[in-house]
Amino acid sequence: MDTPLKHIAFIMDGNGRWAQQCGLARTEGHKVGAQRVFDVAKRAFKHWNIPYVTLYAFSTENWKRPAYEVSFIFKLLATYLKHKRSLFFENEIRLNTIGDISKLPENARTVLVDLKEQTKKYKDHTLTIALNYGAREEVLRAISQLSEEERQHITWEALEKHLYTAGMPDPDLIVRTSGEQRLSNYLLLQAAYSEFYFTPTYWPDFDDEAFDKAIEEYMRRTRRFGGI
Ligand code: IPE
Ligand code: IPE
Ligand code: MG
Does the annotation mark 13 as catalytic? Predict the structure, then answer.
């Protein structure tokens, strides 16, 4: 099915509360949440023909969490990517990241760097994972990368080239699960004209049906970009 969406971005929230409601440890919620990732990517790429899917997996603020949870999340990420490796090739998906991955534990970083390198030939489907990503860090980094000359007469076009998302279309739709209605430092500049969709569903319960509801809601919106 074709939609006018070029880019859909998710804030995968509610893993902890999902686990809590099942009487499980928060880490179990992350495990089940991770299993949703490929289903969501497939639904976007294959069913809805959306070329860019971006997932918020770890924010610059998430380092505040207990060390065991942080280390669990990155171990899970490495295991998950190794396990799903062949799916990237079978479905011709390019893996991309936004955020400063140099601060990630070595194991996770190595898996990411390798898979990104091996899938960079694929152009039609890009799965971007936001890891140690924060929009404020992103904008400071972009400014610091401008040349002296560019900095004198700073333009949006020049700045944009230094964002982690350079070359990607802005998200048409940002979906946040778990009932929270905030951006939590996600894609603040890229979201200038994004549509927002908030659902009380926790991320581990976010299935194809829940996904399709978000798209259907998006189709009912009128985007004006400042025009009439
Ligand atoms: C989202 O789920 C995953 C990450 C931020 C890594 P949470 O862990 O934030 O789950 P809740 O919000 O506590 O339920
Ligand atoms: C946002 O979720 C970050 C990710 C989903 C990775 P949080 O659970 O960290 O956000 P807050 O703290 O509720 O705003
Ligand atoms: Mg949360």
Answer: yes
Instruction: Locate 219 and state its tokens.
Output: 């189709």
Q: Cα–Cα distance between 22 and 15 in angstroms, integer?
A: 11
Query: What's the Cα-to-Cα distance from 188 to each of 63, 101, 210, rounded to whole Å?
Result: 20, 19, 25
168 token code pair: 């990607």
pLDDT exceeds cutoff 90 at 1: no
Q: Is 97 in the pocket of ligand 1 (CB under 6 A)?
A: no
Supply the pLDDT for residue 201: 98
Helix extents (H) in 146-207: 148-152, 156-160
- For ligand 1, pick from 10, 17, 63 the residue to mutate: most ligand atoms within 8 Å of CB: 17
Buried b (16+ CB within 10 A) or exposed e, 51-88: bbbbbbbbbbebeeeeeeeeebbbebbbebbeebbeeb
Note the CATH architecture for domain 7-218: 3-Layer(aba) Sandwich (3.40)
Say which of 2, 39, 49, 62 is annotated catalytic: 62
Q: Rounded CA gap, 5 and 169, in Å?
A: 10
Annotated active-site residue 96? The verdict is no
**Residue 138: enclosing H or E segment and its boundaries?**
helix 135-145
Average pLDDT score over residue span 10-37 = 98
Reported as a pLDDT band with limits 50, 70 and 90, residue 31 is very high
Ligand 2, CB cutoff 6 Å, lining residues: 11-13, 56-59, 62, 180, 182, 184
